[in-house]
Amino acid sequence: PGAACAQGVEAPETVTSKGNPILADGRYYTTDPAPLVDGDTLYILTGRDVADPEVNDFIMPEWQLLSTRDPASHVWQHKPGFIRPENVFAWAEPARAYAGQIVKGPDGRFYFYAPVLERDSDAKDRFAIGVAVADSVNGPWKDAHPAGPIVSQKIPVPNDIQNIDPTVLVDDDGRVYLYWGTFGQMRGMELERDMITPKGPETRIQGLTGFFEAPWIFKRKGIYYMLYAGNKAGPDSACTPAVYHACQAWGTATSPLGPWTYRGVALRPVSSTTSHAGIVEFKGKWYMAYHTADAVGGGHFRRSVAIDPVEWDDSVSPAAMRPVVP
Ligand code: FUB
């Protein structure tokens, strides 16, 4: 796949999966899933690990797209080479296509929040968040803010965190909120209703025990939920095994920027050190997409997306997520 990727000759394909991971044969690794529902289709935006087995680094040249009309059918469309940073953001460097998210805006268009390396920056960490827009999930994508990223170590106010893992909520009243961060620091900020322009102020998100990275915001029955990769999060040390692997923890709030309350563990540590997940409701059922190292030849830098149903316990308040396998 690496050589074919370099030549840009990879074709979309239909895959009948045997279960988890969705693409399990090691031809393509898929990472950092961001599920999205549009009409009768469940999409999962994923990154792509192409690191050789001996390389301990995230080598991630592009985003890919998986889609299905029925996860239980195990039939998925797979589009490698879906988006490459340098093809959309003139200010971005190739590679390091970390965890992004596509969100449908109130105007019916699609907005892609992408952490990419800012080329002309002397910041000590050059990750910055750009926004692209398209009329269809399938693209074509164009930079919605060609002046540059909407978050970086330079704007809207200088910050010193790694600006990755964006996640966006369009609230019921049309207000828009962006969250991002890693290494234990999460930030949140309101965007204008255009889905693009920072409104601010940038605030620290606190109260989510053990937050490490990979926030995922969603709303259910009037409650704001944040799923995130955590360490030292579980009271039973579920998220602090002897060998460091993150779990997926979750918290809730009654207003979008908090205060947040830690609620528990939604997914125990998986076989990859990183844990990155997204939750979505599709045709009346809830699903969690996450990644593991379980594909053929998989590893911490060769991860693959899995999906499982999520069950809710509505007998408690706020309603609780039941932990997903494994
Ligand atoms: O895939 C690169 C990074 O690893 C993501 O941004 C994190 O969430 C972790 O999954």
From TrEMBL:
Keywords: Carbohydrate metabolism, Glycosidase, Hydrolase, Polysaccharide degradation, Signal, Xylan degradation
GO biological process, any: xylan catabolic process
Keyword Signal: yes
UniProt site (Important for catalytic activity, responsible for pKa modulation of the active site Glu and correct orientation of both the proton donor and substrate): 165
Molecular function (Gene Ontology), one example: hydrolase activity, hydrolyzing O-glycosyl compounds
Family to which this protein belongs: Belongs to the glycosyl hydrolase 43 family.
Name by which UniProt lists this protein: Glycosyl hydrolase family 43
Species of origin: Sphingomonas kyeonggiensis
Full-protein positions shown: 13 to 338 of 518
